[in-house]
Amino acid sequence: MGAGRPIAERSLPELLDTWGQWNLTSTLADATAGRQPAGDPGHAAVLASWLDRQPRVDPLDALAANHRLARLLTGWQWQAIHAARTQGAGWEQIGAALDTGGEQARAGYQASIEDAERYTPDFFTATDSATYRAVLDDPTPLADRGPGTAEGRCRR
């Protein structure tokens, strides 16, 4: 499960396993406790026996794994947005999938591109920028905008 290794060094499956194992044992513990007062000692014993066989995950470790997973998935989200736009999805459809509005989805996607341009220029090339901006209907890379213009300022 990656226990003992820093969260940042764990693979995606290890992070999912850490979170899943904590979630399972937490649910079992809650269910076991809930059966005791309800006068259902047989079910409580079965749940307790199953719970005893499960590896324990520290809640702080689970929280750190959850946080890392959320950050990774959020970081990858813009790639799925690009694919959806490439396949013809509109911003309102994308916003609905993200449980937000179309303009907010577009602004988040644009901010992700600008972050990639700003913070990872060695990995996110001008060609990458143009490819991902093409679905924005705004092909001007951040680097080509003047710092004094509204377009050149950070929107986050």
Rough shape? Answer: elongated
Point out poorly predicted stretches.
139-156
Percent in strands: under 5%
The helix content, as a percent range, equals 55-70%
Which series of helices and strands comes N to C? HHHHHH
Largest sheet: none
Given helix and strand content, the structural type is mainly alpha
Number of strands: 0
Number of helices: 6
Mean pLDDT: 81
* Cα-based radius of gyration, to the nearest Å: 23 Å
Instruction: Please report the distance between the alpha carbons of the first and last residues.
Output: 36 Å
Plain-language structure description:
- The protein has 156 residues and is mostly helical.
- The protein has six helices and no strands.
- It has helices at residues 12-35, 41-52, 59-86, 91-97, 102-119, 126-134.
- The model is unreliable at 139-156 (pLDDT under 50).
Keywords:
156 residues; mainly alpha; 6 helices; elongated; disordered C terminus
Concise account of the structure shown:
This protein has 156 residues and is mainly alpha-helical. Helices cover 63% and strands 0% of the residues.
